[in-house]
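B., you asked whether I could sanity-check this one before it goes into the benchmark set. Here's the sequence:
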Amino acid sequence: MSNITPATIEDVARLAEVSIATVSRAIHTPEKVAKSTRQRVNQAIAITGYTTNAMARSLRMGRSNMILVLAPDIGDPNFSSILVGLENEARAHGYGVLIGHTQNDPERGLEYLKFLSSGQAAGLVLFTGHEPFGHQALGQRLPPTVAVFEPVFGARTSYVGVDDVAGARKAAEYLLSAGHRSIAFIGDSKTRLGQARRREGYDVALNAARIPADRRIIVEGDGTTESGRLGLEQLFMRDTLPTAFMCVNDATAVGVMNGLAARGYDLPRDFSVIGFDDVPQATYLNPALTTIRQPRTAIGRQAMALLLETLATPLSEPKEILIMPDLVVRGSVTAPARR
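And here's what the prediction gave me:
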């Protein structure tokens, strides 16, 4: 029996000297990758035997040992770190990972689900925050499924992710401890459960500080950089300016910071900003972004462990595993300015 450790997407990325997301794009959407990069990735795949090892094990076992991961945006900075945890745990138990990049296109999602209906994948990991559109057309129930990064709204799907309420409460409490009493929450949502939970954490902290509801500033958003900028513009038009912005994620915080800088404000002297996620770019902003760090690799590892446990013994009820995040203090928060 061979003791050779199966190759992973990390091995391919390391050998090709590219990111994990680039390897995934080279495999699934090669037309979007430069020819020279694609050649390096293909050479690395050939050397490591990345895909062939996983498929060969499936054939030997007489059943699929592949897990399908559906993601709307593999370029999201959160994706690659969670994927590392997913794949390391899968590899340790003899499973491989297939990546389905849906690009928020329902038809693409349905195409990838054919792997499930044809028996080429045994389980499903969702980054999307919703069940695959049109999966009922397959004529069968979804296989064992675990959601990561974004809980599935209104569905009975197991979830492994950060404790959004606790993390958001930490963020709001840090702003309160700096002296802020006028704090805007940018990125509320009625359809995205993760964003709604972060709003809940904001409210819990402000309730504890006895700040009444009519003094709270809430702006909806979809978690993108543009929604952060638009949310800021709404407040300027309403002439309702806080001393601090608590953003639903780092992308929203970037939009807020860019908008404030474009208006000539000095951060954090004029306004404080705090994010959520701790994406790699947060360190390089000016000022560097204070934020809540998601334990992304741990989330991926525990999500895959839960999925493999469910494959072995189906759950009677969905599970939810929440991991406590950390506050990362940098330079974007200080005491409120006197205006």
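One thing to flag: Residues 58-62 have pLDDT under 50 and may be disordered. Otherwise nothing jumped out at me.
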